[in-house]
Amino acid sequence: QMATVVIAGRPNVGKSTIFNRLVGRRQALVADQPGVTRDRKEGEATLRGRTVRLIDTAGLEESGPDTLFGRMRASSEQAVQTADLVLFCIDARAGITPADEHFATWLRRQNRPILLVANKAEGKAGAAAAMEAFSLGLGTPIGISAEHGDGIADLMTMIVDAL
Ligand code: GDP
Ligand code: MG
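^ thats the input. predicted complex w/ guanosine-5'-diphosphate below
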């Protein structure tokens, strides 16, 4: 049985960029072909020789409950319930927002293993900003830059170790 890893967090923190990084170039390119939805929601990623099912909880911008937290929760609830591991992603540059805090509180109650991923943490300032996410009470933030590729290899190792 393949493990399921769910990428969650508010819009624009970089979930889809992380998804593409983990799934890899080949599948990401396929997704860019005309007629194929650009925002892939599911894929397989081979991390340190272990293949996992990866789910990107996209679609938060679509209509639904009218608060940001409501939409985050609605779009993630089903996926989180099937998750062997949740990557809760925040934007280290933007800092922790009320929606992040709300979502963290809800996520903790779901009793699923969580890795806290602080994305957009490129550069020295980024590493310091990532540490602000300690305040969420979800353990040590893993600072990465999905766009630049920083910290991705370490993240892959931490995902496999957490499964
Ligand atoms: P999503 O809405 O959570 O899926 O976020 P996206 O993956 O669509 O990314 C939102 C924006 O953040 C895009 O403009 C990305 O290029 C940008 N982004 C993603 N990762 C990084 C990163 O590591 N550093 C910076 N500076 N920007 C990033
Ligand atoms: Mg997305």
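The chain has a mean pLDDT of 86.
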